[in-house]
Design goal:
By secondary structure, the protein is an alpha/beta fold. Helices cover 38% and strands 26% of the residues. Helix 3 packs parallel to helix 6.
Length: 234
């Protein structure tokens, strides 16, 4: 289990996360929805050690990982596909993926992870020597997720994977998220497309200005009038 308890994060005088608590059980897809500026990315960055936590706790399978160095958190089994993809534009597809495996030493495991990524994303295999900066937005998103998978994560954190993508690519990315989950990877998903996120998630949390305002089964929240008005267009 990935567990967050009473997490508080500040950016200077701005109280970005106000004592939030949530958990992600093994095998689940859990989504965190909310408007821009609600603190969704800050939550993922706090889990992965990219943002310093002022108080509260992040635990992975009972181990306190609060403010642990990010590379140590990757070694323990948490990987992040960041908002905006953040691929290395001057490096090839293959080089980007290999960087995702930097915490892994077993050549057999790394080779198996390449095979897994190319099986999930055949288009990346077709562009193996192409520089990442010349890929389409959809291909860069595939690369960002593939790079995150190269570290053999137990928990995959996805930050806005459908941002800026055409509708047909959005459907493809969400189908792939479900496939990754079925392969045994637990997923924490941040997504502004709340309809799509709630359609594939087991459970959901609603984050509003640094506070968890609602939580429950994703199907229940999809039918909640407050969520429908605020995030589902009616």
């Amino acid at each position: 289990m990935l567990k967050i308890t009473d997490l508080n994060v500040f950016y200077g005088p701005i109280h970005a996360l106000k004592g939030i608590s949530m958990d992600v059980n093994d095998g689940e897809i859990v989504t965190l929805i909310g408007s821009n500026g609600a603190g969704k990315s800050t939550t993922l960055n706090s889990i992965t050690g990219l943002v310093r936590v002022q108080s509260g706790k992040v635990e992975l399978e009972g181990k306190d990982i609060t403010n642990m160095p990010s590379h140590k958190i990757v070694e323990l089994g948490i990987s992040l596909s960041p908002e905006g993809r953040e691929v290395f534009p001057g490096l090839s597809v293959e080089e980007n993926l290999r960087l995702g495996a930097y915490t892994r030493q077993d050549k057999g495991e790394i080779s198996a992870n390449f095979d897994r990524v190319y099986d999930l994303f055949p288009r990346l295999k077709e562009r193996i020597k192409q520089t990442a900066g010349t890929l389409s937005g959809g291909e860069q998103q595939m690369l960002a997720i593939g790079r995150a998978l190269m570290s053999s994560p137990k928990y995959l954190l996805l930050d806005e994977p459908s941002m800026g993508l055409a509708p047909n690519l959005v459907l493809m990315i969400f189908d792939l998220i479900v496939s990754i989950n079925k392969q045994g990877t637990t997923i924490l998903l941040i997504e502004q497309n709340a309809n799509m996120a709630l359609s594939i998630a087991n459970r959901a949390y609603v984050l509003e200005t640094g506070n968890i305002s609602l939580s429950g089964k994703a199907s229940d929240l999809a039918n909640d009038d407050r969520v429908r008005r605020a995030y589902l267009g009616g």
